[in-house]
Amino acid sequence: LVVDGLESVASIPTIGPHARPSFEEDFLVNYPKTSIANLLEMDEVGIYVVGAVVDGMVDAEEW
Prior knowledge:
The protein is α+β, with helices and mostly antiparallel strands and 63 residues long.
């Protein structure tokens, strides 16, 4: 912020509690991302964010 030639690096405090990330944002940030192909090759057990594209659905199956 530059006002009348003066620069300020002071932070502006927020009012109220800090916003918590949503469950989804927290999950996506804290776990490694991988593909289905890479997941099938992994030896270690863990929690991963898996990216995939649904190519089709079977009509007879119930979810």
